[in-house]
Structures are given as C-alpha cells and as structure tokens.
C-alpha cells in the first residue's frame, strides 16, 4: 500500500514498487479508477499514462473494480491507482443528497463502502496476485466544513486502515520521500 497527499509522489513510487515486484514474464495491469469529466482531469490522466512503462495493460474500472481484478490472470502484478477515487465513485453511486444524511444512511454508507473494499481485497487474494494499491491520506488536514467532506474523510480513513491491515508493507510519501510504516525491508 502506498499512501500520501496530493502530489506527494505516491503514484511514481507505486510504479517503482511494481517494477521491483515484476519479473520479465509477469503481466502488469494498471487498474485506473478515475472518471474523466473535464479537460483538467483528462490532462492528469494523460500525465499518468505517459509515465507508465510500455507493455503495462491499462484497465479502466471506475465501477465494480473487484470484477476487473477477478479477470486478471494468476501471476499478474496489479497497480490500482487509486483507492480514493474508487471509493468516491462507489459513494456517489450510492447517494446524492449529502446534506440530509441520517445516522442510519450514514451507517449504511459506511458499511456498504467497507464491504465493497472487502470485495476488492478478496478478489486480490482470490487471484493470488501481487498488488500495489495507491490511496490518499486525507485525515491529516483540516476538518471539512460540509457533511460530504467529513463522511468521505472518515470512510477513506477506515478504508485505508482495512487495506493497511492486510498489506505486507505500507509506505507513506511526503514531499516525494517514502517512509516505510509497515513491513520489513527486502
């Protein structure tokens, strides 16, 4: 797992980790979770694409990421970038009225999002693949002033905890500098 804030270097570092994990005959799959809704996002996606090594296979999986992973061949290497966008997509598919979120709705949203992430983790385990997951660390900033921001921050934190618990190693990137926060150096 690779965590970090915006422009922390997490995607580049994750690509380096994948290159270290892959042998010559292992197929590498880049699972992209972002929707391209405007020109600025298109430029971001293009920058990510141009940074990837030739030969990597890109799968667009904005929804049902677990199903995309279930189709990967055994012995594949997976780079999922990014978990934060994946849960954003899932949450927006669940609800649109964030200002009147009841306690029951909030509990249901938390539960369904964590279940969805568990499906993704089960798909990774079920394929016996090597995986690097990239996620934003969103809990170190200010408390968002609106309900959607607060619930998203909380859910993203719980999702990151669930993934980190299963990961063999976890890195936190700050200003392009990786810090191993879980796992032994290889």
From TrEMBL:
Q: Record's Pfam families?
A: CobU
Asked if the record carries the keyword Kinase, the reply is yes
The lineage's top-level taxon is Bacteria
UniProt xrefs under SUPFAM superfamilies: P-loop containing nucleoside triphosphate hydrolases (SSF52540)
Q: Where is the active site?
A: 48
Spell out the molecular function terms from Gene Ontology.
Answer: adenosylcobinamide kinase activity; ATP binding; cobinamide phosphate guanylyltransferase activity; GTP binding
Q: In which pathway does it act?
A: Cofactor biosynthesis; adenosylcobalamin biosynthesis; adenosylcobalamin from cob(II)yrinate a,c-diamide: step 6/7; Cofactor biosynthesis; adenosylcobalamin biosynthesis; adenosylcobalamin from cob(II)yrinate a,c-diamide: step 5/7
The entry marks the following residues as binding GTP, namely 4-11, 32-34, 49-52, 60, 81
**Does the record bear Ribosomal protein in its keywords?**
no
Q: Which Gene3D superfamilies match?
A: P-loop containing nucleotide triphosphate hydrolases
The EC number(s) given in the record are 2.7.1.156, 2.7.7.62
| Catalysis: reaction(s) | adenosylcob(III)inamide phosphate + GTP + H(+) = adenosylcob(III)inamide-GDP + diphosphate; adenosylcob(III)inamide + GTP = adenosylcob(III)inamide phosphate + GDP + H(+); adenosylcob(III)inamide + ATP = adenosylcob(III)inamide phosphate + ADP + H(+)
Gene Ontology biological-process entries: cobalamin biosynthetic process
> What are the entry keywords?
ATP-binding, Cobalamin biosynthesis, GTP-binding, Kinase, Nucleotide-binding, Nucleotidyltransferase, Transferase
Family designation? Belongs to the CobU/CobP family.
The free-text function statement in the UniProt record for this protein reads:
Catalyzes ATP-dependent phosphorylation of adenosylcobinamide and addition of GMP to adenosylcobinamide phosphate.
> What is this protein identified as?
Adenosylcobinamide kinase
The scientific name of the source species is: Dethiosulfovibrio salsuginis
């Amino acid at each position: 797992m690779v965590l970090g804030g915006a422009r922390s270097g997490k995607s580049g570092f994750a690509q380096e980790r994948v290159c270290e994990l892959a042998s010559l005959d292992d197929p590498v799959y880049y699972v992209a979770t972002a929707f391209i809704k405007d020109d600025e996002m298109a430029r971001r996606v293009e920058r990510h694409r141009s940074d990837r090594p030739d030969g990597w296979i890109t799968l667009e999986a904005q929804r049902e990421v677990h199903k995309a992973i279930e189709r990967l061949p055994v012995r594949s290497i997976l780079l999922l970038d990014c978990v934060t966008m994946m849960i954003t997509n899932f949450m927006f598919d669940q609800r649109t009225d964030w200002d009147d979120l009841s306690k029951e709705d909030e509990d249901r949203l938390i539960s369904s999002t964590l279940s969805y992430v568990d499906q993704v983790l089960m798909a990774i385990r079920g394929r016996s693949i090597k995986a690097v997951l990239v996620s934003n660390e969103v809990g170190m900033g200010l408390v968002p002033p609106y309900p959607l921001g607060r619930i998203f921050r909380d859910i993203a934190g719980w999702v990151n905890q669930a993934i980190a618990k299963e990961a063999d190693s976890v890195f936190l990137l700050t200003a392009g500098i990786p810090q191993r926060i879980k796992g032994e150096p290889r």
